Amino acid sequence: MEHSEKYMFKYKGIYFYTKYVTPELIDSLEEFEIRVSDVFLITYPKSGTVWTQNILSLIFHEGHRDETEDIHVIDRVPWLEYNLNKLDYANRPSPRLFTTHLPYYLVPRGLKNKRVKVIYVARNPKDVLVSYFHFSKIVITPDNTPDFSIFLERFLAGEVLSSSWLDHVRGWYDHRDDFNIFFLTYEEMKKDLRGAVLRICDFLGKELSEDDLDTVVKKATFENMKKDPRANYETRPGVRLEEKKCFLRKGTVGDWKNTMTVAQNERFEEVLKEKMKDLPFSYIWDNEEAI
């Protein structure tokens, strides 16, 4: 199941996209200068990243809320390790917002001062798997395979970009005391978006008026994001949308049930059970009907 080095390389236990990063760049991030006012969004791929990027953009930028500024979320909350638009991070005005898929041990050392605010968004790994599989069909990635069974095994083995979902979540949770971190799940956001936005604002120390809060919640809904070119990646280089397909596909909870067979689910549960047994997220994913 190994991938060609043309597309991916493994460095310090993590698969990266060869086209956009180098081992030297990853090493340099340890010394990346952190400001106390910085905010970091941490996710594993397909866990609600773009959704949360948009929410942060709406919270921090009035021009994003009232649509007077045509700035994409990838520039509002850019990627730390994948600086796709060659932005000058050092001279960005505070507060700077960043997104990353990095594991806990590869983020800038300054994040461990417990003052910089970190938001970690997690999602049911079965939905992550299915979303990741469909994502690989519309975006040029080394993970693309037409066979879901093969992709499932690659996912469980951590042979996809960002490597193992299990290790990513486990690592960040086990080392939570090293950071000023707020954990949130995709499922909580789907159940009560307004409540999730309020909790994010409370963690960030941001006070919004009722009108502004209403605007954030309204514009952060899945349907409104699909219509907002600033809030999805459909116009970005490397996206190869087929007819009638959208970058933001469904945005639902429990869609894995429409894809995975009973045998595939059992295989997934077998691998998941041991590593997830003492994480606090599992009760949500085990009780989807209550969401």
TrEMBL record:
Enzyme category, top tier: transferase
SUPFAM superfamilies: P-loop containing nucleoside triphosphate hydrolases (SSF52540)
EC number(s) given by UniProt: 2.8.2.-
Keyword ATP-binding: no
Pfam families noted in UniProt: Sulfotransfer_1
Membrane-spanning parts: none
Ranges for domain Sulfotransferase: 37-279
Key words, A-Z: Cytoplasm, Transferase
InterPro entries: P-loop_NTPase (IPR027417), Sulfotransferase_dom (IPR000863)
Domain of life: Eukaryota
One Gene Ontology cellular component annotation held by this UniProt entry: cytoplasm
Family: Belongs to the sulfotransferase 1 family.
Protein name: Sulfotransferase
Gene that encodes it: LOC102375959
